[in-house]
Amino acid sequence: MKKIGLIWGDGSSPEIMAQAKRVLDAIQDPVDPFVYTDIAMGGEAVDKYGDPLPQHELDKALAQDSVLLGAIGGPKWEGLPGPQRPEKGLLRLREGMELFANDRPAKIWPQLADASPLKKEITDKGIDFVIVRELIGGAYFGKKETKEVNGELVAVDEMPYSEHEIERIGRIGFETARKRRKKLVMVDKHNVLDTSRLWVKVFDRLKEEYPDVEYSTMFVDNAAMQIVKDPSQFDVIVTENLFGDILSDEASQITGSIGMIPSSSRGKTKNGLYEPIHGSAPDIAGQDKVNPIACILSAALMLRYGLDMEEEAARIEQAVEKVLDQGYRTADIWTEGTTLVGTKEMGDRILENL
Ligand SMILES: NC(=O)c1ccc[n+]([C@@H]2O[C@H](COP(=O)([O-])OP(=O)(O)OC[C@H]3O[C@@H](n4cnc5c(N)ncnc54)[C@H](O)[C@@H]3O)[C@@H](O)[C@H]2O)c1
Ligand SMILES: CC(C)[C@H](C(=O)O)[C@@H](O)C(=O)O
Ligand SMILES: [Mg+2]
């Protein structure tokens, strides 16, 4: 029995999750079908329970073999204080599941080269790298405080990192590089930040254990520039939580659209979390416009890494590839000469090609 938690999410998210679930339903073993459990998180949970991730919903997530998430949040909950915001539910889920490593691939599909904002001479060199983002440390989880000092408000977000937190994500970075083209760049800001200087120290120790991996560091501002100047130079980027959040959105867009990029998060326990890197796209919610591919590819990663179903994962990825070959595009990846389809029709086409 394979237990899958489904977080339907907010905004456009239920639309993409519906397509991912159709794909999962179609690919499951009829003799041993998936057992699904819906988990309320984010805005949905705020509305239902006044809490973005009540303990009972986190417990449900912890009881699954894997969890698939669309995205949470939106303007409806914008005014809420930090601890009650939908995003806090996601952070608590990542922390509760101890998901310290988040893989965010940036790979250009040749069919989508025209959708990339980069010049053809740059995309022709290839874009195929992965950002290994530390997920449960740094400014997201440090002490937060807003207080009045000398008649004005002062806000503080602490950004703590300890050696063991850096070492465990560092190992994932080196191991990931070892399985790929053996090139690891640790992105930091060690010219300014103490945390980054500790990252350098820990990585200098670790690199001795991975002599087969070519290791270097790069400042985050330079990395942001290099990602658009020459993305082909990157194989694996490992970085702290906030830098990884920002750089992965940038990296997604150069491959054509943020609507194409899935992610997988792993940690101490065997159950992982699989989610597109994009948000709830509230601006296009309810319009059958949102691209479901990142969510469907996240479901494929869940089958591969969470449920040991490599063959089925590959079938989903091949179906997506065929649909792109056939020229079907949602609005975010549409270019002249291709066929515009909505969210549901994109799901139909992927199902036809499974
Ligand atoms: N993992 C998550 O749940 C997650 C991630 C990022 C943002 N958020 C939340 O989502 C809400 C909206 O944030 P935002 O607008 O900054 O980011 P967003 O990623 O939701 O949207 C940014 C832009 O990209 C477009 N876009 C995103 N995904 C798309 C897709 N699959 N297909 C087509 N277009 C797509 C949107 O329409 C929008 O124009 C916020 O509440 C934010 O906190 C959640
Ligand atoms: C919604 C938000 C908390 C989240 C993050 O910053 O990690 C999102 O932007 C992401 O990239 O998954
Ligand atoms: Mg983000």
TrEMBL record:
Its cofactor is Mn(2+); Mg(2+). NAD(+) binds at residues 74-87, 279-291. One of its GO terms (biological process) is L-leucine biosynthetic process. Mg(2+) binds at D221, D245, D249. Keywords: Amino-acid biosynthesis, Branched-chain amino acid biosynthesis, Cytoplasm, Leucine biosynthesis, Magnesium, Manganese, Metal-binding, NAD, Oxidoreductase. GO terms for cellular component: cytosol. Its main location: cytoplasm. GO terms for molecular function: 3-isopropylmalate dehydrogenase activity; magnesium ion binding; NAD binding. Binds 1 Mg(2+) or Mn(2+) ion per subunit. Pathway: Amino-acid biosynthesis; L-leucine biosynthesis; L-leucine from 3-methyl-2-oxobutanoate: step 3/4. The record marks Y140, K189 as: Important for catalysis. Its EC number is 1.1.1.85. Belongs to the isocitrate and isopropylmalate dehydrogenases family. LeuB type 1 subfamily. Catalyzes the oxidation of 3-carboxy-2-hydroxy-4-methylpentanoate (3-isopropylmalate) to 3-carboxy-4-methyl-2-oxopentanoate. The product decarboxylates to 4-methyl-2 oxopentanoate. This is 3-isopropylmalate dehydrogenase. It comes from Faecalibaculum rodentium.
